[in-house]
Amino acid sequence: MSDAYPSQAYPQAYPPDLKNPCSCCCSRLSSGVRAMALIEIVFGVLGTLASALNASGVLKKPTPEELTSHVSSAIISIIMLITGIILLNGVNNRSIAACRTWFIVTLIVDVLHLANSIYDVMMNHVFFLMSGVLVGIVVSWYLLYVVHCFIQEIRQYPLGIEMGGGGGMMLPPAQQSFYQPAYPTAMPTSSYSVTYQSSYQAQQDVATSGG
Fold first, then answer.
1. pLDDT, tens digit, for every residue of 93-109?
2. Which among 89, 110, 199, 208 would be 20 to 30 A from 136, CA to CA?
3. So where does this one cross the membrane (predicted)?
């Protein structure tokens, strides 16, 4: 009987048709993206508080130039906080729209920050800082690539990927009807995934044949 029913399980290993840039530290890409979101939220909160404290003049009355810098830093920190919350929501709900929003906003901010950094280096003739700018470019594009890969994972596996023995696994419902598939609308494309409609058809064939 087991041969007549395709297994209704999640992939037990990370599918080879997907890329996991966080494989060195996270077995699941979603864990790496979630860590990114949480770090971004923490830095956003700390940056906003520090900028507000400096701009308020509690510690030292800022000059007009310093005040402008503090306000700019506060705006960047607030954007970071908001995008971090959006990305965390995208990971928890496996939302392509939320992840794409983070990707677009972060790409725009990174490009503007890159242009401003290069301008400062050229105007102040501090070319030795260009190495720091290059490191920032590599890190920024790596984070964008990670989220891009996660978006591709959601498209192919909207229900998630269960890693054998790992925590936070997405399990199928405890009760399933014999004549109804667990997820009739899910159509993953990998050979590691389950085609639930095929399972449903196999069950129907067995039922109609009296098996």
1. 999 999 999 999 999 98
2. 89
3. 37-59, 71-89, 101-119, 125-147
